[in-house]
From TrEMBL:
<protein>
    <submittedName>
        <fullName>Diguanylate cyclase (GGDEF)-like protein/PAS domain S-box-containing protein</fullName>
    </submittedName>
</protein>
<feature type="domain" description="EAL">
    <location>
        <begin position="23"/>
        <end position="277"/>
    </location>
</feature>
Length: 278
């Protein structure tokens, strides 16, 4: 098997334009991780700012490496993107998240949205919409409970193709959110061009609340922009009560962050959902 894959190195390029040879080992390791049960998902609640109730859950992938232990996504998602392994990896995430969402529903807790991150190569894959349809079908999950999160760079790469993909996904009935809003340069252009349902305000904007006047102005403007465009708005990375109070007064609809919960196991999510049944 190792022989079949060869002794090649993967060429990957850093921002400075230099080329770094990487032993194929790492690629193969990640491939094995996808096929060999080393990936798992953690789940982070999204809450209604006004009521504190959980309205959705974001699925976040982790790699339990046999030697290195727990590897955070920042250390393997870029490699997965470069090598194209993100396509099978993303497919696994999608199916696992749908399966879990259905299992939660089957326990009788109030149904909620499951949000899945989608990267550029997945979104550019012409088969992506049918993979989504298959995952929903396989796990018996109604499409409006699935939300796909993409960043502006994913849609801006090839706007025409992205618009077509978004149309197919919307036709299925899944919801689309723009992730990390406000972390890039052209977020406004992305909002004008693409039919999103929801805006997720980047943690970098929320972080400086409520002390920083510029952050306050920007967050307030983003919330009213979202209202004008009929997008629901969620603040990411909410860690403190002061941030929460600000967001409540500014009429931000939803929030996600350590203030409520870190990403946790599916069992812990179920416990949280059952606790709020009261
Ligand atoms: P993201 O989609 O913006 O996910 C939110 C990240 O912020 C998560 O990091 C989460 O643990 C972290 N976070 C949540 N609340 C707080 C908070 O209050 N404070 C702070 N400091 N951080 C908070 P994580 O899980 O390490 O994921 C990092 C990134 O990796 C994600 O950013 C996403 O871009 C990517 N990623 C994770 N899972 C997947 C996946 O299944 N597919 C793809 N394509 N990308 C993924
Ligand atoms: Ca996300
Ligand atoms: Ca985000
Ligand atoms: Ca991010």
């Amino acid at each position: 098997r190792a022989k079949q894959l060869g002794r090649n190195t993967l060429q990957h390029h850093d921002g400075a334009g230099t080329s770094v040879g990487m032993p194929l080992g790492e690629h193969e390791e990640l491939h094995l991780a996808i096929t060999g049960d080393q990936l798992f998902l953690e789940y982070q609640p999204q809450v209604d700012v006004a009521t504190g109730r959980i309205t959705g859950i974001e699925a976040l992938v982790r790699w339990n490496h046999p030697a290195k232990g727990r590897v955070p996504p920042i250390n393997f998602i870029p490699l997965a993107e470069e090598t194209g392994l993100i396509v099978p990896l993303g497919l696994w995430v999608l199916n696992e998240a749908c399966r879990r969402a259905r299992a939660w529903q089957d326990t009788g807790v109030a149904p909620l949205t499951i949000a899945v991150n989608v990267s550029a190569k997945q979104f550019a894959d012409p088969d992506f919409a049918s993979h989504v349809a298959e995952a929903l079908e396989r796990h018996g999950l109604q499409s409006h409970w699935l939300e796909l999160e993409v960043t502006e760079s994913v849609v801006m790469q090839d706007a025409e193709r992205a618009l077509a993909m978004m149309a197919s996904l919307r036709a299925l009935g899944v919801r689309l959110s723009i992730d990390d809003f406000g972390s890039g340069y052209s977020s406004l252009a992305a909002l004008k061009t693409f039919p999103f349902d929801r805006l997720k305000m980047d943690r970098s904007l929320v972080e400086a609340l409520p002390g920083d006047k510029t952050a306050v102005a920007i967050v307030s403007a983003v919330i009213s922009l979202a209202q004008t465009l009929k997008l629901s708005v969620l603040a990411e990375g909410v860690e403190t009560d002061a941030q929460m109070d600000f967001l409540r007064h500014a009429r931000c609809e939803e929030a996600q962050g350590y203030r409520f919960s870190r990403p946790v196991s599916p069992e812990e999510i179920l416990r949280l959902l059952q606790t709020q049944l009261r």
